[in-house]
Design a protein that fits this description.
18% helix, six-stranded mixed beta sheet, Molybdopterin biosynthesis moea protein, domain 2, Molybdopterin biosynthesis moeA protein, domain 3, alpha+beta, elongated, 7 helices, Molybdenum Cofactor Biosythetic Enzyme, Chain A, 401 residues, single chain
Length: 401
């Protein structure tokens, strides 16, 4: 057994992580149906006008605007309807003086016409159409290139492809886009007490929770999690596992980061690379390790599920999003009164899981080893290291998951 070295403040730990991680540089071509939420790696210039022709924005009648100028509610203008144009059809006739053409929304404006009168402002009797409202030129018409001009840059590198931006790609007829690759993150669970999901538990064992919670966090934040089998608490085994995943963009281990005689991770990382820090002034998650092996950043998370998952939100989410070139996660916060007095640990930056009930924040933290401490929570409150007591009714900021 050996105590941890100097515990560093949370802000310092985050700064060190940022200094030793970088956005992914690899790119790949992805088909249109798979680009949602990916980060664009190319400039997108339009090779066509959108729309590619003047089209009607309403159901109604294509007219020469000047033929409607004298139209009014009690003195309508009467025009001859010479044809019908449906969406997708090319008009066969020209709209000349005193004429009009029935037109559907999205249909091509016929030659001679320069406006559309909405059907609500007309009345038809066979081939005669009465117009009860005048329209100015180009009223109710979407002009060629009005949305996107040919040759213009419509999307830039670094933009996240939201549903609307996927729609832009589709409007240009693009079958796919060049995007930044998602970072590959190897997840290695460690510990003789950890059993693979699907196997029978031996006495003294628990199932591997952390691989799956960490994987879910990474998947949600732009990364590709790659699960490794459970590795025993032995130097040789850990070295072998880390060498196996040396091509990963990031490595996350759970367990083996504390101060017990079998917690050998710090020594292994020091042998293969460099330990940047071991121990942070936070609760839960004090024994967190961060280091670099070659050029690959590596986190050693505590083995206890709540500590591991909490640190996942604190460290992995911002790191994963930065590497994946995604914008910082939007922090959804509710300000609520604390339901009961809470005694905190002075000198530790604490993340207290809470559930919102009856307009109050109720602590649901049991201990770092219980997954329900976080599974039953709606979010957490942050307690600064210089605070040792929060009174009942104190307004606190609840950061929602």
């Amino acid at each position: 057994m050996r105590p941890l070295g100097r515990l560093i403040p949370l802000a310092e730990a985050k700064t060190l992580v940022d200094a030793n991680t970088r956005p992914i540089e690899r790119t790949e071509r992805v088909p249109l149906e798979s680009v949602l939420h990916r980060v664009l790696a190319e400039e997108v210039h339009s090779i066509i006008d959108v729309p590619p022709y003047d089209r009607s924005a309403m159901d109604g009648y294509a007219v020469r605007a000047e033929d409607t100028f004298s139209a009014g509610k009690f003195q309508p203008v009467e025009l001859d309807c010479v044809d019908v144009v449906n969406a997708g059809e090319v008009p066969k006739r020209v709209v000349s003086k005193g004429k009009c053409m029935q037109i559907a929304t999205g249909a091509m404006i016929p030659k001679g016409a320069d406006a559309v009168v909405m059907v609500e402002n007309t009345e038809r009797s066979r081939k005669k159409v009465q117009i009860f409202r005048s329209v100015p030129p180009w009223s109710n018409v979407s002009k060629k290139g009005e949305d996107i001009r040919k040759g213009t840059m419509v999307l830039r590198p670094g933009e996240v492809l939201t549903p609307s931006k996927v729609g832009v790609l589709a409007a240009l007829g693009m079958t796919g886009a060049e995007v930044y690759s998602r970072p590959n993150v190897s997840i290695i669970p460690t510990g003789d007490e950890v059993a693979e999901i699907g196997t029978e538990l031996r006495k003294g064992q628990v199932y591997d929770i952390n691989s799956h919670t960490i994987s879910s966090i990474l998947n949600e934040n732009g990364c590709v999690p790659i699960l490794h089998e459970v590795v025993e608490d032995a130097v040789e085994s850990l070295i072998g596992a880390l060498q196996e995943v040396s091509d990963a963009d990031m490595i996350v281990l759970s367990g083996g980061s504390s101060a017990g005689e079998r917690d050998v991770l710090e020594g292994v990382v020091s042998k293969l690379g460099k330990v940047i820090f071991h121990g942070v002034q936070i609760k839960p998650g004090k024994p967190t390790i961060f280091g670099v092996i070659g050029e690959t950043p590596m986190f050693g998370m505590p083995g206890y599920p709540t500590a591991c998952l909490t640190n996942g939100y604190v460290f992995l989410v911002p790191t994963a999003r930065r590497m994946a070139r995604l914008p910082p996660k939007i922090d959804l916060v509710q300000t609520l009164p604390l339901a009961k007095k809470y005694a905190a640990d002075l000198g530790r930056h604490q993340f207290l899981t809470v559930k919102i009930k009856d307009g109050e924040a109720h602590s649901v933290f049991k201990e770092s080893g219980t997954i329900t401490s976080i599974a039953n929570a709606d979010g957490w409150i942050e307690i600064p290291p210089n605070v040792d007591l929060i009174d009942k009714g104190t307004m606190v900021e609840v950061h929602l998951f």
